[in-house]
Amino acid sequence: MIGTTGLKAFEVKCIVGVYEQERNYPQPVLFDIELDYDFAKPAESDALAHAVDYDKVASSVRAMVQQRAFKLLETMAEETVSLLFKHMEHVRTIRLEIRKPQAVTDAACSLVRVERHR
Known about the structure:
A 4-stranded antiparallel beta sheet has the order 1-2-3-4. It has helices at 40-45, 54-67, 73-87, and strands spanning 2-14, 27-38, 91-100, 110-117. By secondary structure, the protein is α+β, with helices and mostly antiparallel strands. Helix 2 crosses helix 3 (73-87).
């Protein structure tokens, strides 16, 4: 019974960008994280120990992103997926979109989107 869970518009303030003005102060990035895994065991047990802990997802992503000063969203995306796969062995597929609202004048945001399977 494969299902999808995740976080939508999870905001983290961090240093990201290649231009000098982007590297001087934290700016918001928004994460949409979708995690596919087998819901059978958590649905049967109703126990967080068998499910994805959203707080752990959020805190681990926030810590990793804020510890680094990424230049590219592409690098941030790949490292985020690697982190999530490392800590959540039961997750089969990750779909991740990262949006940077303040990146381009006259655009709502810049973004990257990746999908990875194991």
